[in-house]
Structures are given as structure tokens and as C-alpha cells.
Design brief:
This protein is an alpha/beta fold. The chain is built from 12 helices and 13 strands. A 7-stranded mixed sheet has the order 2-8-7-6-5-3-4, with helices on both faces. The radius of gyration is 20 Å and the shape is globular. The chain starts with 9 loop residues before the first helix and ends with a helix. Pyridoxal-5'-phosphate binds near residues 82 and 224. Pyridoxal-5'-phosphate (PLP) binds near residues 82, 211, 219 and 224.
């Protein structure tokens, strides 16, 4: 089954390889290259005395901000310490006995489920289909009787977007078999129109996971939330660990949500740079980048390149370039890596270093 591994471990790499943290370019975590929205740092400094009290246990202002941002009622929303919190609280709240995960996928779904002893099965998206998910086959598989099914859309690490209509078909199939459908939309902000968030009005078996980590560039603040039918959200609220969203993160997140210029600029920048990076990667002999709807690209390493993904990662790490070796994703093997779309000048360095390392 899946090994647990994550990108973004700059401190550890710096210690292990003796490279200064500010000399490392991290393509292994998919964080907005434009940084966080303007004014966030000032908000945290101004509001610092909020640290003198316990945070608002209901994250009232943040939930109001999210409610306005998505045009969805407050009862449908529950804020947490990153969306990862819910990957643990969903299993402990709903106690599924059998789970299906559409893979390759983020390792924390399985980790959260395994802690309560859920039997986990996988539905694998295959390279021969460009990793697209065949919803008809998922529906057939659901007839085996699962209590819960997990999708990530756009999928990590493949970048594949399943359309809202297709995903709704899967949620409807899950509804018929009494299966809870968890859709992780950590990367949907780049294609917001494909979000199934509004579908919670008609599907009571739907839980949407959202994160402010990637798009708003604040992995260290830890803000995620659930959008689900009030009955589901209420159950999760009852079961919630108190005060997981700290007071300063609540204030900063509210501020981030109203920065329309930043939101538009991010979508534009990622779309332009993703095009550049994909074309440049495809020009390197022996590499091939897949189509992606998110702020990262999955890359295939063909046999003519002597190194596998782990060797390539090690060689680039010594140069201060971090990429995500995908061999730790279930079923992927050692011929894939994933890179974040970063600032243009950083993307140029990635391409140069890749050429250099592969050509050696
Ligand atoms: C697909 C996916 N979902 C969720 C998360 C976790 O996000 P958060 O920072 O909100 O816990 C990640 C982090 O890498 C991810 O890749």
C-alpha cells in the first residue's frame, strides 16, 4: 500500500545536504508562486494580541467569509487545521468499514482510514488512459458495497481534471449504494467552475474538502474546510477537536478571501507558466509532461534516461532543486516525478538543471 511521503521538506533537506534553505528551490510542494495575498503579514502583526485568548471555537468570521466567497450557507461549512484534519476526522466520525480510494492519491486518506481499521481498496487510474478516471467503471466497482469513496479533483499527482458532470454521476452512483463520497478539491481553485461545492444541495452523501494551502500560498497557517450537507457537517462539528484553527490564521484567512486581484492574478500566472513549463519539459529528450488542470505537472521519464525518479530526485536535490519523486505513490512505479509551477525564472532554472543532470 501507499508509503507516506510529502513534498516541501526544505528544513530537512537543508540539514541533510548542507545547503542553505534560501538556496533551495522547492518544486516538490505545490504552493502559489506569487506568495500570500497582500496585507496578510500586517493583519497577523496587528492582530497578534488575539493570541492572548483561545481562538473562536466556531471560526465564526472565517466561516462567514467562506460562506460569502462560495455563496453557500454557513451551516454547510466547517473550518479546520488544513484539510488534512478532516482526513482523520471523517473516518472517526462516520466509521466506514470499507473504503474505496481512486488512486494514485494523497497518502493521508488511507492513513486516516487505517487508524480506525477501515478496509481500504483502490481504484487505479492508468497511464494508458492518461490517468483519466473512468466513472462507469468506478460505478460498477461501487456495487461491491463501500461505505466511503475518495476522489481528488484535480487529481494529485496526475493533474487530471474530472468534469463536474462526470463526478456528479459518480456521486449519484455512490448515493445509490449508500456510499459517502469525499471529493478532495485542494487544487480546484485553479478551475473553480468545475467544483462540485454547490452539489451539496442535492447530494446528501457528499463531503467536499477544500484547502487554502495551495492557492492562497499559506501552507504554514493551516486552513482547510469542509463543505457538506448540514446533517453531515453537523455530525463532523459534534466530533471536532476544539480550537484547531488558531486565532491568527482565522484573521488572515478572512483577509485572503477578499483579495480579488490576487485571485485573478494567480489564475492567470499559473495558466501562462504551466503552458511554458509543460512545453519546455516536453522538449527535453526522454521526458513527457501530462496535461494538468492544477499548479503542478506530472512527468514521465522514459527508459532512454538512465535515472529513475528516485535517482533523478537525488541528483537534483544536490543541486538545490527539489522535485517530487512519485515512486512513493501507490502503483506508480519509479518512472514519474511531479513539479510545481513556480515563478518563471525558477521554472527556467528547473529546465536548465534537468537538461544538465539528464545530459551528464
Ligand atoms: C491532494 C491534497 N489534498 C490535501 C492536502 C493537504 O492540504 P492541507 O494543507 O489543507 O492540509 C494536500 C497536501 O499536499 C494534497 O496534496
Amino acid at each position: 500500500m501507499m508509503k507516506r511521503d510529502h513534498g516541501g521538506s526544505i528544513c530537512e533537506i537543508s540539514r541533510r545536504y548542507g545547503i542553505d534553505e534560501d538556496k533551495i528551490i522547492d518544486f516538490s510542494a505545490n504552493i502559489n508562486p506569487l506568495g500570500y495575498p497582500q496585507g496578510l503579514k500586517e493583519t497577523i502583526i496587528e492582530e497578534f494580541d488575539a493570541a492572548l485568548n483561545y481562538p473562536d471555537i466556531d471560526s465564526f468570521d472565517l466561516v462567514s467569509g467562506l460562506s460569502e466567497y462560495h455563496d453557500i450557507g454557513r451551516d454547510y461549512i466547517l473550518a479546520g487545521n488544513g484539510s488534512t484534519e478532516f482526513m482523520y476526522s471523517i473516518p472517526s466520525t462516520f466509521k466506514p468499514r470499507k473504503a474505496l480510494i481512486v488512486t494514485p492519491a494523497f497518502s493521508e486518506y488511507e492513513k486516516g482510514l487505517s487508524l480506525i481499521g477501515t478496509k481500504v481498496s483502490c481504484f487505479k487510474a492508468e497511464e494508458k488512459d492518461n490517468f483519466s478516471i473512468d466513472i462507469d467503471s468506478v460505478c460498477v466497482r461501487l456495487r461491491d458495497g463501500f461505505d466511503i469513496v475518495y476522489f481528488c479533483n484535480p487529481a494529485n499527482p496526475t493533474g487530471v481534471l474530472t468534469s463536474k458532470d462526470e463526478l456528479c454521476r459518480a456521486i449519484a452512483c455512490a448515493g445509490k449504494t449508500g456510499t459517502l463520497a469525499v471529493i478532495d478539491e485542494a487544487f480546484i481553485d485553479f478551475v473553480e467552475e468545475e467544483s462540485v461545492k454547490k452539489e451539496i444541495l442535492r447530494f446528501h452523501n457528499l463531503i467536499v474538502l477544500r484547502s487554502m494551502t495551495k492557492f492562497f500560498g499559506i501552507p504554514g497557517l493551516r486552513i482547510g474546510y469542509v463543505i457538506a450537507a448540514p446533517s453531515c457537517a453537523a455530525k463532523m462539528r459534534e466530533n471536532k477537536i476544539p480550537w484547531t484553527v488558531n486565532a491568527l490564521a482565522q484573521k488572515a484567512a478572512v483577509k485572503a478571501l477578499v483579495d480579488g486581484d490576487y485571485i485573478r492574478a494567480t489564475r492567470q500566472y499559473i495558466s501562462t507558466e504551466r503552458k511554458y513549463l509543460k512545453a519546455a519539459l516536453n522538449e527535453i529528450a526522454g521526458l513527457s509532461a501530462f496535461k494538468s488542470a492544477a499548479n503542478f505537472l506530472l512527468v514521465r521519464i522514459y527508459d532512454r534516461v538512465g535515472s529513475n525518479s528516485t535517482e533523478l530526485k537525488d541528483r537534483l536535490t544536490r543541486e538545490g532543486i527539489l522535485i517530487r519523486d512519485c515512486s512513493t505513490f501507490d502503483s506508480m512505479g519509479d518512472r514519474y516525478f511531479r513539479v510545481a509551477v513556480k515563478k518563471h525564472e525558477q521554472n527556467v532554472i528547473l529546465i536548465e538543471k534537468l537538461k544538465e543532470v539528464i545530459g551528464r
